[in-house]
Amino acid sequence: MKEPAPNLITRAAARLRQAASPPTAPTETLEDRAAEASDVPDVAAAHRAAAAKKAVLEPPRRSEIVTIDRGALARAGVIMPNAQRTRTSEEFRIVKRQVVAEALREPDVDAGGRNGRLIMVTSSRPREGKTFTAVNLAFSLASERDFKVLLIDADVHRQSLVELFGVKAEKGWVNLLADSSVEFSDVLLRTNVPNLSLLPSGKGMPGVPELLSSKRMGVLVNEMVQRYPDRFIIFDAPPCLASSEPSILAGYVGQIVFVVESHRTRREEVESALHLISACGNIFLLLNKTENFLTDDFGAYADYYVPEK
Predict the structure, then answer these.
(1) CA gyration radius, the chain
(2) Helix 130-142 and helix 87-103: axis angle, to 10°?
(3) What integer is the mean pLDDT of 225-254?
(4) Which residues lie across from 211 on neighbouring strands?
(5) DSSP letters along 149-217, please?
(6) Is the pLDDT of residue 258 over 60?
(7) DSSP state, residue 84
(8) Which residues contact 268 (CB under 8 A, 6 or more apart)?
(9) Which of 17, 111, 213, 267 is the most buried (most CB within 10 A)?
(10) Is the pLDDT at 45 greater than 70, yes or no?
């Protein structure tokens, strides 16, 4: 006996179900995925390998270490760390305390505040003692246990610091500003005095004021402040009435120590110079080369510190 033929409705429903079903995709195996991945280059891995190779071939740059002539500095009147207490050393301790107190105040960035660890030392005219002041302030700060000092020769016209410290330097601050391939480690000099580094000015070139007012200057200053939170940065700048650089640097620093030579600098010169650097709101006047009778009482401590026999 023959089996009855399927119902027409049943067959039609089966065809509709078959038409609605999507075609079955071929099964992808893990081997297939691995084969496809091997054909695509791993760009990130290639960059990491290249960077690692470069790091091996090019070790990190380190600053040069120089030996400064302590005897020559002492003969020039510089107060060396751990030296015997003298009238001059105590006077610079007083100056240092005021500088540190101002630097420890948190700057109000929203109100245009500047970092107090950025200090410029300048004067109205040449030979008033600004470099003498900058160096002694740097050594006094470097004698502190919690601070380090970077002394920058910002006077490319005279380059007094290199001569005073008795070191040689082909490149310096100007080269760092002019050439983006020059790094801090290429121009920074670490000295044999603990906590004290020196940044020479470098050889002078045209357009130094424009370099100081460039965007790179602002970037480098900000980098120094952010990278070294325990470091005071002192710019030994040219005299205000002899160069335009101090008026530009005044826009970056948080403090200015303005040196006035007693009985020599005229009042109108001081007023004109202060007007040029008014971009900085914290300016301290330091009277230099005063006669002893003005501070005889203060000088009386010298005998007090002599050890008894």
Answers:
(1) 34
(2) 80
(3) 94
(4) none
(5) EEEEE--TTT-HHHHHHT---S--HHHHHH-TT--HHHH-EEESSTTEEEE---S--TTHHHHHTSHHH
(6) yes
(7) P
(8) none
(9) 213
(10) no
Q: Which fold has domain 64-304?
A: Rossmann fold (3.40.50)
Q: How far apart are CA 298 and CA 285, in angstroms?
A: 19
Query: Which candidate, 132, 142, 28, 121, places its Cα nearest to that of 76?
Result: 132
Helices (H), the chain: 8-20, 30-38, 43-57, 70-75, 87-103, 130-142, 160-165, 173-178, 184-187, 208-212, 215-227, 245-249, 267-276, 296-299, 301-304
pTM: 0.75
The token duo for 259 is: 């040196």
Q: Which residues contact 91 (CB under 8 A, 6 or more apart)?
A: 298
State the amino acid at position 231 in one-letter form: R
Q: Are 87 and 299 in contact (CB under 8 A)?
A: yes
Taking only the tens place, the pLDDT of each residue in 155-211 is: 988 888 888 998 888 889 999 999 989 998 899 999 999 999 999 998 878 889 999
Instruction: Look at residue 150 in the predicted model and tell me its pLDDT.
Output: 96
For residues 11 and 8, what is the distance between their CA atoms, to the nearest angstrom?
Answer: 5
Alpha-carbon distance 193 to 40, whole Å? 56
Please tell me which residue, 289 or 270, carries the higher pLDDT value: 270
Q: What CA–CA distance (Å, rounded) separates 150 from 197?
A: 5
Contact assessment for residue 140 and residue 133, using Cβ atoms and an 8 Å cutoff:
no
- The mean per-residue pLDDT over the stretch 274-301 comes to 77
Number of neighbours of residue 99 by Cβ within 10 angstroms? 24
